[in-house]
Write a structure and sequence with these properties.
The protein is of the alpha+beta class. It has one domain: B-lactam Antibiotic, Isopenicillin N Synthase, Chain (Jelly Rolls, Sandwich). It is 30% helix and 21% strand. Helix 2 crosses helix 6. Keywords: Iron, Metal-binding, Oxidoreductase.
Length: 297
């Protein structure tokens, strides 16, 4: 049975070269075999995470007409409030039973101090993870970090409301999808429902583990590394017990390269097979995926 590994970052951030290399090896294995990992001792403040969850809950508790005043308008901006069923992550299924609020680095400044602090902390952690990726692939340590230095990331608060009526056939809380960027940091409550698809095609649960951050690799990292690191399909299912009456909350930090970075297969990843994908600019890829997700509705 495949399990999502738990990796302790302490040995990378505070240790000598040998211990750091052991962590790098674990990261490589996780990204290569399943594309998901739990990080312990990530350096993120528990209090800050709780503050952001509290802020998120208070926002989603607002009346719909108030939330709609900050509605998501277009894929070029990709910020603001996204209503229930507005997104269809799996194009073959009904709209997702969730609502979301997207924030950019500039947008965070006008919202709340805890959001700004959280965005900055996530950026710092993402840079550390990108550093481990570079070392895992025998690249210069700052190879990925400098290609993400414009902080073109999106902080997304998510609310999956309790179900009042039966879902439509095939409808879930978040449809099967892979993430679009390089990596995602995910913080979730303990209601559950997140599932990850293994390379064998089986779905396994990714329950909340206290004091960890889930990290998964996205499409652009998969393209960059010629599938050495995999971008894994995942989804959020509707619970089949009393938790269906509970709200589920999560916070995702989507880490994306600078728009003008060309995502072309790395030479170090061409030893076993020739490039799978043609080069593409990071910004163009993100735009195409957002357009597909929101369609014309």
């Amino acid at each position: 049975m495949v399990t999502i590994p738990v990796i302790d970052l302490t040995a990378f951030t505070n240790s000598n070269a040998t211990t750091r290399q052991a962590v790098v090896k674990e990261v490589y294995q996780a990204c290569h075999e399943i594309g998901f990992m739990y990080l312990q001792n990530s350096g993120m403040s528990k209090d800050l995470i709780q503050q952001v969850f509290n802020y998120s809950k208070s926002f989603f508790n607002l009346p719909l007409e108030v939330k709609q005043k900050q509605a998501w308008s277009d894929e070029f901006n990709n910020t603001g409030y996204v209503g229930i069923e507005r997104e269809r992550l799996d194009p073959n299924k009904p709209g997702d039973l969730k609502e979301a609020f997207n924030v950019s680095k500039e947008g965070a400044v006008g919202i709340d101090a805890c959001i700004v602090d959280f965005y900055d902390s996530c950026t710092q952690l993402a840079n550390t993870v990108l550093q481990t990726f570079a070392l895992a692939l025998d690249l210069p340590e700052d190879f990925f970090r400098i290609r993400h230095d414009r902080h073109n990331h999106t902080l997304r608060s998510l609310h999956y409301p309790p179900l009042q009526t039966p879902p439509k056939p095939g409808q879930v809380r978040a449809g099967e999808h892979s993430d679009y960027g390089s990596i995602t940091l995910l913080f979730q409550d303990d209601v559950g429902g997140l599932e990850v698809q293994t390379t064998a095609g089986e779905w396994i649960g990714a329950a909340a583990i206290p004091d960890t951050v889930i990290v998964n690799t996205g499409d652009l990292m998969q393209r960059w590394t010629n599938h050495v690191f995999c971008s894994t399909k995942h989804r959020v299912m509707i619970p089949n017990d009393d938790r269906v009456k509970q709200s589920r909350y999560s916070i995702a930090f989507f880490c994306h390269p600078n728009d003008d970075v060309e995502i072309a297969c790395l030479e170090c990843c061409q030893k076993e097979k020739s490039p799978i994908y043609p080069p593409i600019l990071a910004g163009e890829y993100l735009l195409s995926r957002l357009q597909a997700t929101y369609g014309n509705s």
